[in-house]
Amino acid sequence: MANITAADVMKLRKMTSAGMMDCKNALIEADGDFQKAVDIIREKGKLVAAKRADRETSEGAVESRIHGNKGILVALGCETDFVARTEGFQALVQSIADVAIKEFPADTDALKACKMANGETVEKEIEVFTGKTGEKLSLVYYGRVEAPFIYTYLHKLTGKLGALVGFNKEVPEDLAKGIAMQVASMNPIGIYPEDCSQEILDREYKVAVEKTKEELVQKAIDAALNKAGINPSHVDSEAHIDSNTAKGWITPEQAEQARTIIKTVGEEKAASLPAPMVENIAKGRVQKFLKESTLTEQEYQMAGDKTIVKDAIAKVDKEAKVVDFKRISLSD
Q1: What is the model's pLDDT at position 16?
Q2: Which tens digit of pLDDT belongs to each residue from 63-78?
Q3: Which among 137, 170, 178, 253 could bridge 149 via Cys, Cβ 3.0 to 4.6 Å?
Q4: What does the alpha-carbon distance between residue 19 and residue 13 come to, in Å, rounded to a whole number?
């Protein structure tokens, strides 16, 4: 059996960033062979990752980089805030961001395959750190922006929220920061209403139709209940009907009358809803959704009034436009 010294342990630790005991045990198992010891530590990381594959990684850190007309946004997730705050974890996030802006890969899989400064891939370094911490780590997000002018905002208080915004030209820093903060806080689904896919529009229209029908039916039921002298809020669920009957707020006869009204009026109203009216209301809801969910149509949070984002930008520079943005929040 090889004689494992403290210097050997430190050497392996520098090579892998693993814990002292993990390094010592790996060297003992490898009989002093450093390459085998490195492989053992890597395999341990894969094993831990496999065992904890179903764990959520809602903690972690977000980092960004900008170089010229290129910008990147990355998020490394872990299970606990304790691990996220360690120097090792933060250093790993920084290193991944450095690699991302240098290589500027097309997507997350390509970033995982990029080589770190020590020659190992991003994916393998994450596996090694997984073995070291005993927690699941995952590259939760990677996004990139190419634009003439780019600005980034990171929420330093939590370290779990970030945005990257590309403009068609340089704009004042206060405006760029304001728009980046807008993206981070308001989570728009696109820049312009026309950017929304048909799939999103169809989904929102379907939701709007169902919500409109439910509200119209409920409005008819409430009117019938009020006409019968029954407070609708006292009978809005079976649990409330039972509890309010027990409290004496409604009589058993009123409880049965309410059940009959809810059933009969609800069915009659649902069967007689005018389709054109439902469709018009639903279309209005979709337009409201687009106004609230697309960046240029949102109320600009930094304005303090009803000014929308596109008008706030035009007020500073009529030729300036947002051409792309990326956002990630580990808390969503």
Answers
A1: 65
A2: 999 999 999 999 999 9
A3: 170
A4: 7
